[in-house]
Structure formats: structure tokens, C-alpha cells
Amino acid sequence: MSESKDIQKVTETITGPHQVNPYGPNPGDFLSNVNNFQLIDSTLREGEQFANAFFDTEKKIEIAKALDDFGVDYIELTSPVASEQSRKDCEAICKLGLKAKILTHIRCHMDDARVAVETGVDGVDVVIGTSKFLRQYSHGKDMNYIAKSAVEVIEFVKSKGIEIRFSSEDSFRSDLVDLLNIYKTVDKIGVNRVGIADTVGCANPRQVYELIRTLKSVVSCDIECHFHNDTGCAIANAYCALEGGARLIDVSVLGIGERNGITPLGGLMARMIVAAPEYVKSKYKLHKIRDIENLVAEAVEVNIPFNNPITGFCAFTHKAGIHAKAILANPSTYEILDPHDFGMKRYIHFANRLTGWNAIKSRVDQLNLNLTDDQVKEVTAKIKKMGDIRPLNIDDVDSIIKDFHTGLATPAIKPVDLTTEEPAAKKTKYSK
Ligand SMILES: CC(=O)SCCNC(=O)CCNC(=O)[C@H](O)C(C)(C)COP(=O)(O)OP(=O)(O)OC[C@H]1O[C@@H](n2cnc3c(N)ncnc32)[C@H](O)[C@@H]1OP(=O)(O)O
Ligand SMILES: O=C(O)CCC(=O)C(=O)O
Ligand SMILES: [Zn+2]
Question: What is the C-alpha to C-alpha distance for residues 261 and 293, in angstroms, rounded to an integer?
């Protein structure tokens, strides 16, 4: 066999023979849940642990309704034992009659469980640290005690007809045998889900994939995952968890949570729409992401980061001339995400010295001016010259183009085409 045929064979075993989306799930991977995942939004639990967060009842209700409208499967709320108002808020959200199931999050203790089951929640997420750090310095209990109290809490919550999830906190720094034993125990007594939590954000995607695969061989219930972002792996870890067979991912709006937070809802949607476009588009109202992020950003008094997936101000802005030319010909050249899927627009940032004549020609067309290609190249050179001296904005470029046009011997005005799409309306330092 020739060398190129060999290579083709190898690539086909990785991506499949005629896969339309090479970044989609591997069809041969029968355990993958990339095409069949669920979201547990924890903005109102983990997110409340973000340094800046304070949500009053009204704001919690507004956020819960927005998440429900977006289509998250579950909404996780702060423990009702955290404070009197936390308990009342939990009860109030349970009474809203949302489509999303309402969960609350408690310690692995009967005192907490007794309060939780009275709030009206659909499910209880119970957690206890299993790493030696947490066993020694947080609750001080050994694995036998943990297993005993887990069984007691799970059986009690189940007896009330409420969903129950058991999670080991700090799973990736826990002993694997301890982990598998406790998960096996809780699975046997009918827990609805088990949770893996990368509490300190230490895990990498390969470790996640391996742990989920191993856990899949031990339990028959669904697996939920919770990833902190301390080392920047929260989205990648969530994706690999789904590839390994986890079913549910914890997210929060903008990723808010303890320290620098967890897997962000918007960022995960960006990853998942590439891998499972039909599933994601049919299940979630993606055009609502911007409004939800603005709602939460305002509530916790932060700005949306400039490089945020989807909604960062430059997420769909193309600048360099080589990029702009290709984008104008076919947006897929430099975009893996289609901004329109999220109710956003793309923008060609041509007011700078990295621009090229193709980008300037598109602006000339938008201004309804008639220039030959050679004339556009000439005016592009002038724009670049000015761009070497100082930052430019659209007005600068428009005046250079218009002055150039006026200076031509017989300027011809093209008929106005009102269907021309304006560039995206994100206000930047360099745009109007
Ligand atoms: C990784 C995570 O994010 S887990 C979720 C974190 N969420 C929260 O902490 C919710 C908000 N917390 C609170 O309001 C309070 O911490 C409360 C009400 C839960 C407890 O308050 P306090 O009784 O004053 O205890 P404190 O917060 O100082 O310490 C935690 C207590 O919980 C115990 N504990 C910690 N984790 C667990 C657990 N998973 N299961 C059972 N007990 C636990 C500790 O042993 C400690 O009890 P102790 O003081 O008797 O030793
Ligand atoms: O309950 C869980 O699975 C996660 C708890 C948590 O927030 C964490 O471990 O970081
Ligand atoms: Zn967490």
C-alpha cells in the first residue's frame, strides 16, 4: 500500500470515512454522550460562591426563569441550611413551576437532608470530600463513615420520592479504590446519579476521560461532572467527560463560582455546537446566551471578558487582511462558529494597517462608491500609511476613501443598494 493510502487509513480510523464534521464525536465511540448530554446550571449555587455574588430573591427568580427559558435541564440552588433566606428562596423557586428540575445542594448529613426534602425540590445533590486533604482538614471522617452516612442520606431522600445524586468532592485527588467502592455502594442502592468533582481544578482532559471510562464500568447510573477552571481546563474537561460517557455537566453563567469558577455555560455551548450541532441547536435557545450573560454580569458587577466565547466583543471580529478576504468569500474559512446561531453578527475590522484591498473594497461597496480594483489598492495603501502613524477608526477610513474618490477626475456614484449588511454593531475603541 502507498504511503498516502496508509495515512488515509489511519485518519479514517480516527475520524470515520466521510464525516461531514471532522470535529464531531467519533461515531465508533459508543459510550460517548456528546450527542446526548444534559446541563445542570449552578449559577444559583456554585455561582453564589463567586466572590462578588449576592442575589436577592427577585434576582434569583429572574435568573432561574432565564435559564429555564434557555433550556437547561436542571437548576441547582444553594443549600437551604446556608441561611434562612436561602431556604425561603429555594422554596420560592420550586413554586415557579419551571420546566427545569430544581435541585438543592447539601452536605452528606441527615440534618441537611431533612431540611432539603421539605423545600419542594425535585432533587438533592449530596456531596462529601473523599480526598485525604478534605477527610483530614474539612470534615474529618473516614471512608467507612462516609459510606454509612451516604447510604443513610440516599435512602432517606429516595423514600421521599425525590431524585438523589451522590458526589465525591475533590475526586481527582482521592484514592481510586476508595472512589470506585463508594460509587459502587451508592449505585447499588439506587442513587439517580453519581458526581465527579474536580474541586481544585487540577485535572486534565486525558485524566478525566480515563476516570469516567473506569467509573462507567463500575456503575449503571448516570454520571455528572463538575470542573473548576483554576488551570484553564474546565471546558475541555467537560467535553472529555462527555466523550468518556458522562451524561450531565455542571455549568454556571460566565463560569462564576469559587475562585475563578467552573465550566461556563456559553463556553460549553460553543464547544458543543461544533461537536453536536443538531442536538445543541434543537435543545437550547442559543440566541439567549447574550441576555443571560448580561443579566448575571450586571448582577455580580463584572464585565463580559473581551475574549469570552460567543459574546466577547471581538468573538466574531476579523481583522488581518488575509482573514478578511477569505471571510468575505466564505465565512467558514476562519470561523468554526456561525455568529447567527447565537443571534450575533460578524464584523470585519478594516480600519487598521493590517487591512487589505479586499476588505477596503467591501467598505467602498458599502459606501456605494465606484472604484476599480487598482483604485481600491491605491486607497488601501493610503489607509495603511495612516495606520502606521496612529490607530484608525471607521470615520478615518471613510474620509480617506471619500477624499480619494472625490479627487478622481470623473467620480461615478453607484446606485444605492440598501440590502448591503452593515458590519456588526459592537462598539470598540476603533469603531463608531
Ligand atoms: C466544594 C463546594 O463548593 S461544597 C459546597 C459549599 N457550600 C457551602 O459551603 C454552602 C454555604 N455554607 C454554609 O452556609 C455553612 O458552611 C454551613 C451552614 C453549611 C455550615 O456552617 P457551620 O456549621 O458554621 O460550619 P462551617 O462552615 O464552619 O464548617 C463546615 C462544617 O461542615 C462539615 N462538613 C463539611 N463538608 C461536609 C460534608 N460534605 N458532609 C458533611 N459535613 C461536612 C465540617 O466538618 C464542618 O462541621 P464542624 O464545624 O462540625 O466540623
Ligand atoms: O457537588 C458537587 O459535585 C461539586 C461540589 C463543588 O462545588 C466542588 O467540589 O467544587
Ligand atoms: Zn465547585
Answer: 15
Q: Taking the model in full, what pTM does it have?
A: 0.92
* Alpha carbons within 13 A on the beta-carbon side of 59: 16
State the distance from the centre of ligand 1 to the C-alpha of 88, rounded, in angstroms: 19
Three cell numbers written together for 307: 475574549
Rounded Cα distance between 275 and 285, Å, is 17
Give the number of other Cβ atoms within 10 Å of residue 27's Cβ.
12
Residue 7's contacts (CB-CB under 8 Å, 6 or more residues apart) are none
323 has catalytic annotation: yes
Calpha distance 179→203 (Å, rounded): 15
Domains, the chain, in order of start with CATH, read 22-299 (3.20.20.70), 317-407 (no CATH)
146 ligand 1 Cβ < 6 A? no
Give, for 227, the enclosing helix (H) or strand (E).
strand 222-227
Look up residue 196 and give its three cell numbers: 465527579
The pLDDT tens digits of the residues spanning 357-410 come to 999 999 999 999 999 999 999 999 999 999 999 999 999 999 999 999 999 976
* Phi, psi of 226, deg, nearest 5: -140, 115
d(CA 269, CA 264): 9
